[in-house]
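CORE FACILITY INTAKE
Project code: CF-77B
Contact: R.S. (postdoc)
Sample description: multi-component assembly, two entities in total
Requested service: structural model of the whole complex
Turnaround: standard
Below are the sequence entries exactly as provided by the requester. Do not edit them.
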Amino acid sequence: MASKAMTVNEALDRALPLGHPERLFESMRYSLFAGGKRVRPMLALAACELVGGDEAAALPVACAVEMVHTMSLIHDDLPCMDDDHLRRGRPTNHVAFGVSTALLAGDALLARAFEHVARECTEHGVPADRALRAVAELASAVGTDGLVAGQVVDLASEGADVDLATLEYIHVHKTARLLEAAAVCGGIVSGGADEEIEGIRRYARYVGLLFQVVDDVLDVTRTSEQLGKTAGKDIATDKATYPKLMGMDGARAYAAELVASAEAELDRFDGTRTEPLRHLAHFIAYRQH
Amino acid sequence: MASKAMTVNEALDRALPLGHPERLFESMRYSLFAGGKRVRPMLALAACELVGGDEAAALPVACAVEMVHTMSLIHDDLPCMDDDHLRRGRPTNHVAFGVSTALLAGDALLARAFEHVARECTEHGVPADRALRAVAELASAVGTDGLVAGQVVDLASEGADVDLATLEYIHVHKTARLLEAAAVCGGIVSGGADEEIEGIRRYARYVGLLFQVVDDVLDVTRTSEQLGKTAGKDIATDKATYPKLMGMDGARAYAAELVASAEAELDRFDGTRTEPLRHLAHFIAYRQH
């Protein structure tokens, strides 16, 4: 997994070299290379491997998904949103570069993601219809059916009593949809058959929820230093979380159930190729930050 | 032209019906249907006509460009950017919906633009390679080579002495690039030959600059009521403008020169098909708001 992360980091470095206006590029790169775990790109590469594709074909969508993810972190941290000052152990983008540059860096990363898929897929011989399906999939994970919808409902729920259905809506849209898109796009550009793509989608939905359940648990159990971001914030802001609504044991049991369901989806695939996606499910479940 | 605008408005209405979360959709539609002139969509449709394409093929990119344009207006108006309160005679998006919703509505419009091109082009039989080229063209007009780059340099230049080269950089990126992308995308999805696309691009570059020169002139000569936005703002903020740097007569002469250059680019095309693009150049040059 470490070698995959290095492959992704090198591809991202090539995808976004410094340019003019310099401050804008610095701001974009500051967040893009802030030590992210690259879970989404690795999902894309693992899905590519699952359907027997060529890694080079999946790297463009892997990079694009990480650009989208980075944009969402920058915008979510802004003062008018969650007003966060610490991310991955460093000042957030707007603290380091100012609010207007941070906002624009996010916009530019979002646009760059789609440009990258369109240009690099063509460059790497991915058929245009597959690349176009990936654009639609990725875009739908950002807007009114994805990240943005989740953030709108999240902000509207602050300080309110949130039930499990609303909590699940927020997390499906804010977190799970993009993880799903990462895996699905990796499968699409690699030429996965329709029923394979649907299997990947179901796997990724479980993993997406799992990711958030574990995130909520870690917010309670780990320190800020261990997390690289402000810990205990959910409790301090009385935010609805899985531990709050299910209890800590309930949340942990739910996480275990989600891992099992995700793995079950992989059973229909060629066993030797499922290893990376199994590994990722475990990595997400048992990570410590 | 009025009937084309109606076609565009109907297509936009279909492209973004109300949905959940309601407030997000209301915010997106508030700005998308705020009485914009639809210059960019009409450029796309006119370029389609120039190369003998089918209007239905060009409508998706026409709508997408207007979504991108609307997103840029919403984000540019935000308090951390230009802090504008009036746009097209109505409160700006963040005044009406709050800063966080406005920011997210912009993000969602940007994502929706790409999703719309990807899905609707497929739906209308546009070959995937053309649609993918349009995605790349449109995305490049938004990010580090387009809108965002222009806005970054614009914000950095506030209160500073700006020379004509910097002014031109700002306007090429903030305004002209998206007008160019509109026309070029219209040509691409309609199957224009490479040399036709390049002719359209040159035409659109002149028209893009023209648009901004006229904008600057109108800011001096018209009232807020006539413009539907705060007039005289450029002088009040001592902003670099064409009239300031070239004098009013110089700016008007430059505009006339740009119209002539744009029209000259059309001379190589079939005469009967050039009418819509000629008309648009004149409309942009002689508009009163």
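Facility notes:
- Chain B has 14 helices and two strands.
- Chain B has a mean pLDDT of 93.
Invoice: internal transfer
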